[in-house]
Amino acid sequence: MNYFSVWPFFVCLAVICAAVATPLFRLADAPTTDKAKRNPGLDGLRGFLALAVVFHHGAMYHGYLMTGIWKLLPSRFYTGLGQGGVSVFFMITGYLFWGKIIADQHKNGVNWRALYIGRIFRIAPVYLLAVCSMLVIVGFETGWTLAEPVSTVAKEVTNWLALGIRPRYEVNGFRDTQVLLAGVTWSLRFEWDFYGALFVLALTLAAICRMLPARHQLFSWLLPGFILAACLIRSPSPNYPDNAICCALFSLGMLAAACGPFRLGPDWLRSSAVLALVAIALVGFPSSYQAGPVLLLGAAFTLIASGCTVFGIMTSRPAIRLGDISYGIYLLQGLALAAAFRPAPLRLLALADPYYHWLLLLSATLALVGAATIVHVIVERPGITLGRRIAQRFAPDDAAVIVNFDIRPSGRI
Q1: Which of 81, 100, 157, 318 could staple 56 via S-S, CB 3.0–4.6 A?
Q2: How many independent structural domains does the chain possess?
């Protein structure tokens, strides 16, 4: 076994799923009142995506411990786990919110204030918990003494507290600031960009559909299809996602929502197709931020969004539980990895043998899942509930765009 062997990932994944299936994690189960609003396949998918990113960063930690540099891996598989995981997260966002636009405009219109209030209370509580925990660690690492002017540190902290909208830099001269959160907060900026663009896209779609009311179904998928084509025309293959790639990923999710669920053959056939598409995307390209893997992952995502269970895995109890706590897993992973690998004795142990590295990674991930479950119950879920209560104070037609539609995709926001 070496540090980038593939089989330890699947062993660790099996151990984690077995642990999450036990009654110890029943706190992660969603309230019965929420279950009717959900697409179980997508919920299960979220959990595996979050774990994929965790193991991507867990594998990256070996190079970081060796060189002190946080950089991509020489392994296509583990690089693809992280890049592909975030890519499909973006697709889920596009799917759910474009589907919401279509469904809400079919009814009474989109309540934009309520939508954005809901997003703030969905994102902020766990994000602020993670960032404040990171800032406390930075304080300890710097001995609670100022290495920079107060105004500079205040600006750096303010940027970090801006829910991912502002650029994030090192704090008080501590160069490993971002590594403490495994650098995951970068994706929130693209999420906020999408939420802002969504209003413009909805207005554009509404205007088109008012002029051509008989073509509303056509344009609900033609608009994201045009965006997708425009974004994938270019040739670069970046190791890190740029605006065009992220737009393509969001638009793939929007396309899946606009086309609605469909069935092509039995579940075992669609499940086999999903596994094949994902395998090719993970190991067939040096980066997932290229047209080829983007389209392959988009096809796999569309099949899952349309009801494919991947041999029942996506709708299993551990998958659904992991999906419910996936946001906490994603944001808190850096803290768990830092606890497992940064202390000197553990760092030396991880560098001594790949076996110990993977054992520490498995232990850290199990602790992370447990912590994310607790955070979900006492921080994340109450925050979502509070956001819904505040949003309900606004009238349904407040800041709404009203157009009749026929497509009503299912999902959970």
Answers
A1: 81
A2: 1
DSSP β-bridge partners for residue 174: 171
Say what the pLDDT of residue 404 is.
Answer: 42
| 175-to-59, 65, 172, 179, 384 alpha-carbon distances in Å | 20, 14, 9, 9, 33
Decide: 44 and 319 in contact? Cβ < 8 Å. Answer: yes
CB-based contacts of 41: which residues, under 8 Å, 6+ apart? 304, 305, 307, 308, 309, 314, 315
Residue 327 placed within a domain: yes
The boundaries of the domain holding residue 111 are: 38-391
DSSP 380: I
What are the structure tokens assigned to 408, written together? Answer: 């009503």
Does residue 308 come out as left (phi exceeding 0), alpha (psi in the -120 to 50 range) or beta? beta
Measured from the Cβ of residue 233, the count of other Cβ atoms closer than 10 Å reads 9
User: Contacts by 299-302 with C-beta closer than 8 Å and gap 24+?
Assistant: 299/273, 300/88, 300/273, 300/274, 301/45, 301/88, 301/91, 301/92, 301/95, 301/252, 301/253, 301/256, 302/252, 302/255, 302/256, 302/259
- Domain-located, residue 162: yes
C-alpha torsion 14→20→22→24, nearest 10: 150
C-alpha separations of 278 from 83, 84, 255, 296, 299 in Å: 12, 9, 19, 7, 9
Question: Would you say residue 157 lies in a domain?
Answer: yes
pLDDT of residue 332: 98
- pLDDT score for 398: 46
How many C-beta atoms lie closer than 10 Å to residue 276's C-beta?
Answer: 12
In a domain? residue 25: no
| CA quadruple 27, 32, 37, 38: dihedral, nearest 10 | 40
What DSSP state is assigned to residue 181? G
Angle between helices 150-160 and 112-141 (to 10 degrees): 130
**Cα–Cα distance list, 311 to 133, 272, 276 (Å):** 39, 8, 13
pLDDT under 70: residue ranges of the chain: 32-37, 105-108, 212-218, 235-238, 394-413
